Amino acid sequence: MEEYKKRIIKIIQYIEQHLDTDLSLEKVAEISAYSPFHFHRVFKLITGETLQNYTIRKRIEKSALYLAMRKRVDIKEIYLELGFDNHSGFNKAFKKYYGKSPSEFRKSAPENFHKILKIESKNGQVDAVFHQYICNVENLLKWRTMNLEIKVADLEEMHLASVMSLGIENVESSYDVLINWAKKKHLFPRDHVKMISVYHDSFKTTSPDKVRIHAGMLVEDKLEAQDEEIFPEILEAGKFIIGSGEVTLDDFEQCWVSLFLWMNENHYTTRKAFPFEIYHSNFKEHPEGKMLVDFCIPIH
Length: 300
Prior knowledge:
The protein is an alpha+beta fold. The protein has helices at residues 2-17, 25-32, 36-47, 51-69, 75-81, 87-98, 102-112, 114-121, 125-147, 171-184, 252-265; strands at 149-155, 158-166, 195-199, 212-219, 231-235, 238-247, 276-279, 291-298. It has 2 domains: 2-145, Homeodomain-like (Arc Repressor Mutant, subunit A, Orthogonal Bundle), CATH 1.10.10; 149-298, Alpha-Beta Barrel (Multidrug-efflux Transporter 1 Regulator Bmrr, Chain A), CATH 3.20.80.10. It has an 8-stranded antiparallel beta sheet with strand order 1-6-8-7-3-4-2-5. Helix 3 packs across helix 11 (252-265).
């Protein structure tokens, strides 16, 4: 736990002290000692915001403080000091948060800004923020202990019949296509059918409505090329971190983040292969919407 606390404090302090510099995902992830892919998920779960949203918000909040306290300083000097490139971008971002332009805000600050000033000047405010984030990590680690069994294991090569889903909201309809095809081929229903979702894009770089997820069904033999939407896919043999648990769809993000944290704790690194989920039961058949899932991360 102390290690997480140190990392969180280091990250937040770095952002606060470097609002005028490059705060790209790659740069801040390097400071945190996580890979960009893992850092993106961890940071969002802990703070409730993406790194980009967090840094913009902090820049805007600090600019609001400067507008109120530094009445004679030119607005351009303020936004350049806080990492904004031009007036148009700063004006748009500021208005989104405060509902008025920076100049309008500055004029109204004596009457309406006292509450924000009080928050900024309050002793221990930073410690309170750290405490909130550390509590989030503690809760995540407790949740992981209660809900996931984690192991490292070698998996054999797997052959799939797959349908590509563009956007996470379309995964279910892709599985409908796959199951209808399997019924015609007399592959479904049958005992021990395994459905597998393979992630071919990272949520770090691709928006949820554009991410490619392959809805797959494990088949015994290599599938020949099909004339329909179905295509053959092979998951190569290798070593994986496998987190297994009975969870709901809402728990999936916590499962993945938990595994990334565990991976870093135990000094594993990912290899060039796609992560995937193996479903051992159907959440629609469970009274609480739960299913047995293996979350698999390819590692060296």
